[in-house]
Amino acid sequence: MEDHTATNIDGRPAPALRRYVRSYVGFDLRGFPAGVHCGPPGRVLTAVISLSGSLEVAAGVDDGTPVTRFGSVAGGLMRRSVAIHHDGRQEGVKVSLTPLGARAVYGMPAADLAHRLVPLDDLLGTLGVELADRLRAATTWAARFAALDELLLRAVGRGADGDRVSRMRPEVAEAWRRLLAARGRVQVGAVAAELGWSRRYLTERFRGEVGLSPKTFARVLRFEHAHELATAHDPLPWADVATVSGYADQAHLVREWSEFTGRSPTAWRRGEVLLGTGQPPTGRPSRGLPFPFLQDRPIAVL
């Protein structure tokens, strides 16, 4: 492990994209032992463009799900981790989209991609091919992020002609915001009542747009918070992780962790050769990276 290097670079999307695109992350990982990384579920839809060969990904961990090779891959919201098979060398760019971004960039509701991994070219067509080519030809992260801005703005503009951006119900968007703000620690029935809907109607509408029910999405958010705490520079004991992230007790955390990752917390930590212990300069653990890994140099923000 002495010769490993790992870098990730955060890029901020152009202002006109920020309703749709939450973040860019460039990553360069070298010299780690080969293994299988659990890519955890979270609040965003993810697209990854590899800069160093194919990505080998399965939509499930240790469950017999077949492994598929992608040059670039897009996924929807998940309720379980994806398995990223790696040889200790990965370089690429990750783009995180909001549910509204699925409509704006891909031309479909996020629900159409839920629990799925598909080639990015299938969603963006020739624009996806051009995007991958531009990113691989660029020699700096700044140039790659600039190419992302340019081509994703073109995708959004292409979609605006068909008004595919504005069809999310405002009540669904508000429920999404409230669940995010509470990190999932909110009663779905209370949110529905505040919106003037029944719980059943909110559940139907939310699932039809996002692909997960509000209750399941709240569980994902609690797990996401627990995962942040578990991958921090100085992680809390598991009992404290459970308390801070809103679980009834450690046994509750263990059940949820096992469902979302396919492994117990202890087995997950033991098996993650890419497990990160570094933190960005802000002091907050990076969320939803393709590989939450040890950083041997500071993150740059472009």
In brief:
The protein is of the alpha+beta class.
Provide keyphrases for this structure.
single chain; 302 residues; 40% helix; globular; 11 strands; disordered C terminus
Layout of helices and strands:
Layout: E1 5-11, E2 21-30, E3 35-39, E4 45-50, E5 55-58, E6 68-70, E7 72-75, E8 82-86, E9 90-97, H1 99-106, E10 117-119, H2 120-124, H3 126-137, H4 141-160, H5 170-181, H6 188-195, H7 199-210, H8 214-230, H9 238-244, H10 250-261, H11 265-271, E11 300-301
Parallel strand pairs: 1-11
Antiparallel strand pairs: 1-2, 2-9, 3-8, 4-7, 4-9, 5-6, 5-8, 7-10
Helix pairs in contact: 1-4, 3-4, 5-7, 5-8, 8-10
Tell me about this structure:
The chain has 302 residues and is an alpha+beta fold. The protein is built from eleven helices and eleven strands. The chain has a seven-stranded mixed beta sheet with strand order 10-7-4-9-2-1-11. Strands 3-8-5-6 form a four-stranded antiparallel beta sheet, with no helix packed on it. The two termini are 29 Å apart.
Structural class: alpha+beta
Tertiary shape: globular
> Based on DSSP secondary structure assignment, what is the total number of beta strands?
11
In angstroms, what separates the terminal alpha carbons? 29 Å
Rg, alpha carbons: 19 Å
Helix content: 25-40%
Q: Quaternary status of these chains?
A: single chain
Mean pLDDT across every amino acid position:
85
**N-to-C order of helices and strands:** EEEEEEEEEHEHHHHHHHHHHE
Count of helical stretches: 11
Main beta sheet: strand number and arrangement?
A: 7 strands, mixed
Order of strands in the sheet with most strands: 10-7-4-9-2-1-11
Uncertain residue segments:
276-301
Strand coverage percent = 15-25%
